[in-house]
């Protein structure tokens, strides 16, 4: 599948330099690194990496990079990754999941803490990442799931995967593992997002499962460069990617203090659909789900039909989607708001867009041609509209 | 416990005549009988019974009574009831649950079909009916409940009964029976409302349970005179009384087409709290509960704490309640709306009441003194307020 956008392809040399720069950046900046992400958006990855390496950067950026800025293993990491069967996917790549990650950037611009998008993703598996996020659903839950929870997770994952829905999860024991296995069993796509490096061998009991995911058309991905061990805070940081990359998150089982609830909360903050599966009130593993439904407005889902009805357009003709080569790189907060205000089909005047986005009309007029260059907007008879891909 | 209202007590002779009249009326009019209820509100029970007996009544009333108006077993029913340990409770009695039944009358005046209050209630048991409805909760559910459903019903009923909450249910097998038994085991009050006569021996397997309820401080009640057999439509008609007489209804288990859902729907239409207990999505007996939560806005309750939080003031100091000797008899739709607009403590002007109730101010001024006579309103420095009982 090739992209149909009209912007010029960056040269292979450029891409290689950008990949090397981002290899340095993901090693140096522990995610989420909002200041580094902003800095890269301003300067581009190559110049930003150079400035950080030299310590010649704003203090916010320095705070996020000072501890490791001399860890300059960029090429070594790329070589080691290649040896281990990983590739470093960067926002400059065609298959970067720019569209779903826009939710993180928008949340970050709204001040949601920790919502910065990733600087790059280490990936195993041969599927295109952008395709694996199309109408994806996350299925997450307790590590200490009951037989009921594992059954439901596997069942939902299989049924959704059979309908072409990619299943995202966190590769943990319990619900996560059952979800990945269910999707694999149905011959579907599943994506495991890890809170450690792809070569950390974690969780130990799921090493074979992760190999299978990478081999059988799925993806295993992580922000963390080779050798990074798992850590509690990394699971929480990872959760934002599960939430952002899927259209909705289903919590199958969760105790009172489950990490799955964190994913659900993040999904809600990103404007994604949050669903929870009920269970026996006598089960400690359903307490979190019931609280999500009762107190946090999660939608109860008791069947695949419920999930499809809730997530919306699954099983119906897919809507046209705007995709860009690098939307997250080019767009500042104003451009994001202008872009959000565009309709896919119907044109709008600059005045109308200004009114809807709250961005001053002069600024809207300046931003629109930039969005057009980025393949994110186009002129039409009635004004401007979002760029729709066939 | 004596009433503190200031209206004159009806004489014992009057009460006897009214009871005899209503014994005739509940025999003649299959509930719900909205036209007969209105007719009795206008003429009083004695004159209304006489007119119906003579066939000298409006056509709507005749429609509801024509089939049985010659079944004049009023005294025989009272005698037979007494022999069987039943009494006929009538709205003219001090212990009539006038306040909770107001919800039915208000719903009827809003045009909710089938919401007419009962003309009288046949009762077994020695507790005062009005006290048994104070902050009551209904626990209902599938006859073919699972072990899980019976466990939850019994558990909730016991825990609530221990906190002084009367438990209402329908005496059916499964959830209903477990709820009654749980309340009895906790030494609490439980009320069984039947869709047949108290002497129908139905359900056969619960005859002993019903005897125990009547003996151990609970109540067994029905609109149906001695000898009335159970019928499907009578269960549905009975459900409105369970819904009206309790502050909230908990559905513990319900299949896709459960009668418990009918009670829940009615409770919602009466403005009562509707709660549902989740269960395994693999259980057909929890489908109805999940649908109620997902589609009908029922509140998920997974613990007694959830129930108490949802129903509100359980376990907190009880609010003062307005009670009247015969509020349902005296009040037309306007008076009901005016009464609804009164505050228990703070006085309001007639203009304010008119604005809030939508009843013209001249009519408000006419209705207020009538409400005062009925002990439902009182004058105060700042206008009019609802009559509060110490």
UniProtKB/TrEMBL annotation, chains A, B:
Taxonomically, what lineage is the organism? Bacteria, Bacillati, Actinomycetota, Actinomycetes, Pseudonocardiales
- Please identify the protein, giving its name as recorded: DNA-processing protein DprA
- Basic and acidic residues composition bias: which ranges? 59-78
One Pfam family hit = WHD_DprA
Q: Which family does it belong to?
A: Belongs to the DprA/Smf family.
Q: Where is this region: Disordered?
A: 57-78
- What's the superkingdom here? Bacteria
DprA winged helix domain residues are 324-381
Q: Which residues form the Smf/DprA SLOG domain?
A: 89-311
Underlying gene: dprA
User: Which organism is this entry from?
Assistant: Amycolatopsis thermalba
């Amino acid at each position: 599948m090739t992209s149909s956008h009209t912007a010029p392809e960056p040269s292979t040399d450029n891409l290689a330099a950008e990949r090397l720069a981002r290899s340095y950046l993901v090693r140096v900046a522990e995610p989420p690194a909002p200041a580094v992400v902003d800095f890269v958006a301003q300067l581009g990855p190559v110049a930003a990496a150079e400035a950080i390496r030299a310590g010649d950067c704003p203090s916010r950026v320095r705070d996020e990079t000072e501890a490791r800025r001399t860890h300059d293993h960029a090429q070594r990491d790329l070589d080691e990754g290649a040896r281990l069967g990983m590739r470093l996917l960067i926002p400059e790549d065609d298959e970067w999941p720019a569209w779903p990650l826009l939710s993180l950037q928008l949340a970050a611009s709204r001040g949601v803490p920790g919502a910065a998008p990733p600087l790059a993703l280490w990936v195993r598996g041969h599927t295109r990442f952008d395709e694996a996020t199309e109408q994806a659903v996350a299925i997450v839950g307790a590590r200490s799931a009951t037989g009921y929870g594992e059954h439901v997770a596997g069942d939902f994952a299989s049924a959704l995967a059979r309908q072409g829905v990619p299943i995202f999860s966190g590769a943990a024991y319990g619900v996560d593992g059952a979800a990945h296995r269910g999707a694999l069993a149905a011959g579907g796509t599943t994506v495991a997002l890890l809170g450690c490096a792809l070569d950390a061998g974690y969780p130990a009991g799921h090493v074979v499962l992760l190999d299978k995911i990478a081999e059988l058309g799925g993806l295993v991905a992580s922000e963390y460069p080779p050798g990074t061990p798992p850590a509690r805070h990394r699971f929480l940081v990872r959760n934002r990617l599960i939430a952002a990359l899927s259209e909705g998150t289903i919590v199958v089982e969760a105790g009172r203090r489950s990490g799955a609830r964190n994913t659900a909360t993040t999904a809600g903050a990103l404007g994604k659909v949050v669903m929870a599966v009920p269970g026996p009130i006598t089960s400690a593993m359903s307490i979190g789900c019931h609280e999500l439904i009762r107190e946090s407005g999660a939608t109860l889902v008791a069947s695949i039909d419920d999930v499809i009805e809730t997530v919306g357009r699954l099983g119906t003709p897919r809507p046209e989607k705007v995709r860009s080569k690098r939307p997250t790189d080019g767009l500042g907060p104003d451009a994001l708001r202008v872009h959000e205000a565009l309709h896919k089909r119907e044109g709008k005047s600059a005045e109308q867009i200004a009114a809807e986005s709250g961005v001053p009309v002069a600024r809207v007029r300046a931003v629109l041609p930039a969005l057009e260059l980025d393949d994110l907007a186009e002129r039409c008879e009635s004004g401007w509209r979002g760029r729709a891909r066939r």
